[in-house]
């Protein structure tokens, strides 16, 4: 177990974490501002990835593909908000879970109908392909490094948007007291559509970026969705800061657990059994982390309300 | 209102009669597949009746009930796997052998899933609302990934059981006999459920869902009431899991998947939350839709999604609520 391997895995964990953050930020904003559990957030991730793959195949440009992912996901998000989601704000969580579960079915099967069951591929742009040498002689894929950069940039941008702009003030006001800001003359339903579209665009961006290192296929959104839920629950629902901390924590736990837990159990068990136990524990590690956090702090690390 | 009650009772009777009549008709015209579909309805209904006790009576939105379904399934799979390979389940601290006997398997399934529900319930009930939904989902994922990596019992591929397990006095390989068994269990559990709803415990639970503070004021502990409901609920869903595994003679990690947890919620909502027969109606409609729409188009899930959306947005109270009126609906 060399230090190079450890640094590589930490970077992989960070990369996974910041991509989870893109998903989780939208989810947590939507819950914080509108009080809505959106299971269909993973579908928007998938929509972004498919839009990017289709545009990249047609034009060959990765930048255009990213633009398309953002635009299409935001547009689909806005349409869904106006057509369906808007009717769910006043209902209980059970109805929200069901209606958005129904949306997953519609989106997944609709995409299968349009694009077929076979995965599409999105290539890493030439400028970002190949490895880069980091200080200390570590070879690391440039594209993954770029993902970490994009994720951190989005995190900073989001923080500036929420803390430093007028729209951000409205969003924070909407989180605290939606009746009051409606009374102050802010068009609350337009704000809701905007927040939903923003969350959708972030999910679409994540889908497109990750689509280039994995395959683009129907159902790709749900595993990420569940992880993003784990992230926001650990961080405290509604808190962007919590989403960031939770995302990094989950990304690192999952990546490092998969490498080190089997090694750890091999120290005092037979190699085969140790690998087995370590691998099963590693696949459950983030869920164990989440239940420990919830049992310890029932509203998450940075959560204010139940 | 008495009228609403009586109408609901009539609907309930009609549903039961239909669930018996269809397989009998299928037997007469020799359509064994239809009997299998009816058995599927009875088993899924049982799973949903279990969930309905937590969801409808206790107000606990559990997105992790697949855990109990899966535990029931694996209880059957593990015991029958050892019986068919003539190996012991455990040799230490005492010798435990596999079995092909349904009553023993059911007992193990019920006890194991009740224990799991107790542990998950104690931890999850510290939270509420959306956090409760998420923590039950997390437990579901834990079991799902554990089953995938548990290579001793097939890992991702699951376990096949060659011959359906036996029940004294019956030939369970005959579809109509296995249906009769599942139907009898469903009826027994429905009867227990009806008694539970009217019992002091059921009434207290109902109150704990609606106004926990008042329940506390009269000296009852709402969390403990909900915990008991969660354990009963998990045990019933676990029993359904064992039967489901026997129906397919196959268990796999998909029994633990969160999509399945979502599906059982759909069954309950489709029929009507908190209604005694809501889950039965929901399961019947779901299996018919799956079979009928699935035959019409490869993309039948789109239409299931649309139907579900319409029900959530426009027909709150589910199908039983739609037919029987809202007079006895909860909340």
Annotation keywords:
heterodimer, A: mainly alpha, about 5% strand, B: mainly alpha, two-stranded antiparallel sheet, disordered C terminus
Commentary on this structure:
The complex is a heterodimer of chains A (306) and B (331). With 306 residues, chain A is an all-alpha fold. In chain A, 75% of the residues lie in helices and 3% in strands. Helix content of chain B is 72%, strand content 3%. Chain B has a two-stranded antiparallel sheet. A two-stranded antiparallel sheet of chain B has the order 3-4. In chain B, helix 10 runs parallel beside helix 13. Chain B is globular, with a radius of gyration of 20 Å. Chain B starts with a helix and ends in a 7-residue tail after the last helix. Chains A and B meet through helix 4, helix 9 and helix 11 of A and helix 5, helix 10 and helix 12 of B.
